[in-house]
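Chapter review: from sequence to fold.
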Amino acid sequence: MIRTAEVTRFRWLVLAVFVLSTAINYLDRQTLTTLAPLLRSEFRLSNAQYGLILTAFSITYALSAPFAGMLIDRIGLNRAISLAVGLWSCAGIATGFTSGLSGLVGCRAVLGVAEAGGIPAAGKAIHQYLRPAERALGNAVNQAGVSLGMILAPPIATFLALRSGWRQAFVVTGILGLVWIPLWNWTARRADGAPAPKLKATASTSMLRDRRLWAFIAANGLSMIGYSLWTNWTTLYLVDVHHLTLAAAARLAWIPPVFAMAGGLGGGWLSLRFVNRGMAPIAARFRVCVAASVLSLATAAVPLTPTAAWASAAISLSIFAVSAFSVNMYTLPLDAFGGARAAFAVSILVASYGGVQAVISPIVGKVIDLHGYAPVTSVAALAPLAACGVLWGARSVR
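The token string follows.
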């Protein structure tokens, strides 16, 4: 067993191995988004039906997240994340064997159940391995894992689909998660983090009476509208609006996730800088959220871009702002509620994201079918500012 001092010294390396699961999580998730034009064509789906597939994932994701958070807090990080990664990998592999809309809906529903544990487990790991001032930066590193999965999905899924068919893409990306499980357990056995306090049976339910949590839920749901838009519709936007082939869209679709990674790291670094200068952690997170909300107003300009390259640039700026907001939003519960309830606190935000995505996905699809992308980008542009208003008005950051 590595000594405590050595664990502290190598805490970022240990966290990096964990964050690899986040990258695999989003690689599995974004494979569908990348290959949506192919699946939509083969199964003759409308945008509204594609939105229904997203909703199936989002409903189970939202409903399962709180239970996943409680499970992680009760049975421990290592056992819980191994179970979650194993289940979502099998659901991803099964997607490669579907034969229609109902099969896609079923596989995405199971994927939502399993992947609901991913971000809460990351929150638990961040609280377990990092110092308080470093937690937003830790969430930024986890956001980098999210972005890495989104960056890799277009080239990997497109290459596999064009070479061996779209089904093979789901099988290969699913297998990667099964390979990660023994890697993490080997790492975890060699470097135990500081154990979280034992969770009391009433700890999670008592948190639900705290008005700060409900403000966090509402603010996160609003702030993630833009994130949901670009993580699910970027490839379709480039194909439908700018008439690109799947291969041409894939050459641009990896660029916004790079900016998402940069936005997350920038938001985490700026928060750390404020804290190191003496600002209270919660106030530092909120200050970054406000700055990101102002930058997010650029989202409304995406439909005005004249070419696919300019559209990719505008989407990149939009998701940069959303990611800077997100890493600080997901750190606020860790600051407010502590280690014993870290996974449950983050899981509630995961549930709010899933709930919002479940509601808006078929609506977004229907609006796009009828009116194009301008109405949805306008809403996404203003939503982060509304989220800041909720946080400030509820006195959750004062």
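Two observations follow directly from the output. Residues 99 and 390 are 44 Å apart (CA to CA). The radius of gyration is 20 Å.
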